[in-house]
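Title: Prediction job returns without error message
Component: structure pipeline
Severity: low
Priority: P3
Assignee: unassigned

Description:
Job completed but the reporter wants confirmation the result is attached to the right record. Sequence as submitted:
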Amino acid sequence: MFSKVYEKVKNYIKENYISLLIIIVGIVLVTVKLPYYISAPGGTIDTKDKINIATDFKLSGSLNMAYVSQVDGTIPMLLYALLNPNWDIAKEEEVIVGNETIEDEEYRNKMLLEEANDIAVLVAYDHSDISYKTENNKVYVTYVDDLAQTELKVKDQIIKIDGKTVTQRQDLYDFIKNKKPNDKISFTVIRNGKEKKCNTTLIDVNHEAKVGVIITETLDIKSDYHVDLKFKNSESGSSGGLMMALTIYSYLNKIDLTNGKKIVGTGTIDRQGNVGEISGIKYKLMGAVKEHADVFLVPQGENYVEARDLKKEKDYDIDIIPIETFDEALQYLLK
């Protein structure tokens, strides 16, 4: 029985080997990812779909985040990118920072999204005179530079520095500011559920003592005005901070900031409401134009200059507004 089946299969392969070979090559071409990243114009995400607040308030227009499309570096996509002036190709080593792995980058971006969402809620509360308290503050290592002289690792939760308790990122900054390069300090961290000591020698960065790591802070926010944020597993990063803060503020105060327009924006935000620059601004502007946005809020500085120049080059019909702070964005939209 087995020999008959074997003969049939063998004969089929002999008779159809060219077709089978073409199919196999085709599968390889469209599925095997080469060590390249492709960036392309993205689109917009309506921020109301990301929040859950108990209110019947509705906007006459919409507040939106902009995003960049990332395309796998397969052979067909790379060939298309070479022919499309709006698509850009980068080598993997140009995208992955230092010795960071893809998994490390994904973890860092997930943590940055969680931190950005926390800050967006706090900024909106602060501008709405809503009382709240924070608890369960935790500080994590989300990046370790190649030049760092430390035993810290990505995903470590820092709980002490030279025996002093760390509950927020500022504790670390305050401790380091009086130190000098080459000073030695010790961190106590939680790694894989266990406490561990991590020795560190501070490095010289522009004549200042630094650990050489990126720290991300998470916390729980308690308030009578509960805001629930919901994001997909595929979504990450901190560039939506400004627009999330504006949306939460709008719904908490039942103030329509849109005047019936499609408002798209990008930019990080810190606890003081300062708006920070982001990467991929040209792809985000292209996505906003593709989605027929009326206004594009962009961080002041190089981001604004790049967006302004691209608008002029492409003759885009969109208002580009440079923003430095949450208050500035709020005042513009209120007017």
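Comment from assignee: result matches the submitted record. The longest helix spans residues 2-31.
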